Amino acid sequence: FSSTSRRPQTAATLTLLEEHDQLASHGKMSPYEHYNALQQMTNACGIDIPKSKYKPWLHITREHGYILLMKRAGRGCKENGIATTTGSQLAILCPACPREGVNIPADWKHSHLRNGNTILFLCSNALLIIARRQRYMLILMMDANFRLSNIRRSSTLDPGLGTGLAYLVEDSAYHEHYLKYKAQTNISTCSGFKTLEMAEKKDATGLRSTGLCMCACARHKMIRPQGVGNLQKGERYCNMDYIAMSAARNIGLDRFYSYDIACQWNINLQDRMKGLPAYLWPLPDVKLSYGVPKCHAKGHVLSCQCCFSMGLQLGVGNTDGEGIERVWAGIN
Ligand SMILES: [Zn+2]
Ligand SMILES: [Zn+2]
């Protein structure tokens, strides 16, 4: 696999790339660490080591990963497939979460009750409609992670390869959105959260991004397509709003968001939503509800626990909402 298509001077074997793919996905190994290990294996004394091939190695691993994504999505079997790949087509969707037209009844919004007393019929119908909507509700969870920061190594931009085609949001639209928001001043009505306090105070010196925010399905821990974005400061609402809406774009099901500061985040969310691109707005009859994960709920004031604890929310069953922390455990 050559590092460039024109007059290549450096190449990596496919065996090495397959090994790197496994080490990166199962061993959390970065290309930097893998390269250092290869260098050590070449010359453990550190004397007379070959000229650094680290930059070509970065190109190779990134391009190889991109091609693998395309291959696994079968884009090579379509005419002009790679060039015509758009909007999160490379992401693997959760097979267990409800999807309209795939794994739920076509008439999921409507009841089937036909017989009986009219009043009873209307009441039971209304309850049944609520119950049915909740049965097919999309239960999502979100959070931010500050371990996944990225150092700014040069003043030039480092454009991503194929952003928006799988789990990360499309760079340019996201960039345009968060640049509109200079400072967030939110006063917490619940206990003093570090999250809100640090939203603007987080030190971003020398960093291209301070961390990641992510939205995944709460019951199966599958990361949502276009449900991941980077953070420029702390856990700001402008980032979280975008990720939350992007992760469920164009979906007509009701949604439940589990978020450790959902009690604060949901305040004025409808107003803030107007600042998002129109294609991210929830469809008109989509109902949004919110909850705080069970373990985090203990840190909230009692009134907040009564309103937002996941143990008391309708339609979420025994979901604890803490799955996002388990996702971070596999990445950090
Ligand atoms: Zn799922
Ligand atoms: Zn609270």
UniProtKB/TrEMBL annotation:
Per UniProt, residues of the CxC2-like cysteine cluster KDZ transposase-associated domain are: 1-45
| High-level lineage | Eukaryota, Fungi, Dikarya, Basidiomycota, Agaricomycotina
Q: Could you name the domain of life of the organism this protein comes from?
A: Eukaryota
InterPro entries associated with the record: CxC2_KDZ-assoc, KDZ
Its recorded name reads CxC2-like cysteine cluster KDZ transposase-associated domain-containing protein
